[in-house]
Amino acid sequence: MDPITNPYAPGAGQRPPELAGRDEQLRTFDVVLERIARGRSERSIVLTGLRGVGKTVLLNALRSSAVRADWGTGKLEARPDQRLRRPLAAAAHQAVRELGHPRGDEVDQVLGIIKSFALRDAASGSKLRDKWQPGIDVPAVPGRADSGDIEIDLVELFTDIGGLAADLGKGVAFFVDEMQDLGPEDVSAVCAACHEISQSGLPVIVVGAGLPHLPAVLSASKSYSERLFRYQRIDRLPRDAADQALVGPAAEEGCAFTDEALEAMYSVTAGYPYFIQAYGKVVWDVSPSSPISAQDIRVAAPEAESELAVGFFGSRFERATPAEREYLRAMADAALVRGPGDQATTEGHGDAGASPAAYGIVDELDAVATSAVADLLGRKPQSLSPARDALIKKGLIYSGERGQIAFTVPHFGRYLRTQA
């Protein structure tokens, strides 16, 4: 097959040629946009899921829908080492410019408030030359969104931006990726601002995306967050959607898959969108001709797994310290589903460390008890808390409920066992 015409696109946040299996989320969002534009009440949206399920891709697709609806939009990616003011100010600046309000004086007033909000990021008493200067060519407006209390300031900022959008019968949407990495004060501020905006009926929403424990992060900040957001779990694709993600782009290039090849692809990818693109790209390059067969999948699988081991899994594993890697490996062992005789069970046959292309996917638990990890390591759970907490901060594992932990990356346990 011609590698130049290869349609598959494995990349972080890179939109695949066919966004299969997400029609429901796209339709729901279109309804939300229209309802808000008509002055109807709607909640902000939170997308959650593991790494590699396409949260960022879907977030970008939702933003495109908002742009087509003539909304103002801004996007930011939360980071654990960065406060909210600077990236949100940049996103707000872009959103206001996209609105295209005809009255320049009113736009300048709101831009000046955004500038005041951003400048308040500097420490108290900082000299002007030491302050970060946003690229907004209007004077700052003092006394609005610059109190220093992020919760008060964000409410005021959203209120003023929402009023500007309401004048035009439009809305503003802020898209926040990696939302679980916001600091506690910033999470509280976002919840408070969304709450205030929903009560006032202004056309501003937040669309966040993050790991599965994001709802717990929001709930810990504000108890009413459970009613404040519309939560949507983004998971792996069902078989028909996974097939379409492969077949659709291939058909555009005059290529096809046999039924056996599609079955083999679902076996090795388990329907995870990133894996579908990663395997699809390698399979295309190694296949001699159309239709792509199950034998082509078997030939391509080792190369695809090798690339995933380096880029998708290995890059994350390298971020862990030796103690943290020991904890991860114990998690991988504890996550195996045990069958009769205390043997790990698989969907195919063979040992748990064998290639998934040859033996199928190891059956794993979604989460394991921290006590089970401690038992495997022969340690007390309290002594492993530093390693566990560090891994959570690095985004390698998460805790959906007390005493339970899970990998943020699908098939990470399988990777660890094969590397062992």
UniProtKB/TrEMBL annotation:
Residues 166-332 form the Cytochrome c domain. SUPFAM superfamilies: P-loop containing nucleoside triphosphate hydrolases (SSF52540). Residues 1-23 are annotated as: Disordered. Keywords: Heme, Iron, Metal-binding. InterPro entries: AAA_16 (IPR041664), Cyt_c-like_dom (IPR009056), P-loop_NTPase (IPR027417). PROSITE patterns: CYTC (PS51007). One of its GO terms (molecular function) is heme binding. It holds the Pfam family AAA_16. The keyword Metal-binding applies. The keyword Transcription regulation does not apply. This is Cytochrome c domain-containing protein. It comes from Intrasporangium calvum (strain ATCC 23552 / DSM 43043 / JCM 3097 / NBRC 12989 / NCIMB 10167 / NRRL B-3866 / 7 KIP).
